[in-house]
């Protein structure tokens, strides 16, 4: 059972940046797909970004491409660098993990991730 804990959320003005971090209870670098999802009030949880074991493959939602960057370290953490933030990026952001492999495949389905963090709030003011 992998436990995940997010940090780094907060309030920022439009155009600003934030970096979210996700720390896992065990080493994830070589064994887990790591994903970030978000949920705004009254909306379904949606995919934001994901990364493969070893970091070779990444995937992004169209709404964040070119603005967000997902990465992992060699131990147990994943990161979501968020630049050029917009008010529509306001949501609770969740880190997720699942067993993965160093191959190209879809990593964007929330239901395929068994492990989730508690979420961190990101608020972007206009």
Characteristic key phrases:
seven-stranded mixed β-sheet, mainly beta, four-stranded antiparallel β-sheet, 126 residues
For the sheet with most strands, the description reads: 7 strands, mixed
Mean pLDDT: 97
Low-pLDDT parts are: none
Helical segment count: 0
For the secondary structure, the number of strands is 11
Strand and helix order: EEEEEEEEEEE
Helix content: under 10%
Terminal Cα separation, in Å?
40 Å
SS strand fraction: over 45%
Output the structural class: mainly beta
The coarse overall form would be globular
Characterize the quaternary organization of these chains: single chain
The gyration radius over C-alpha positions equals 13 Å
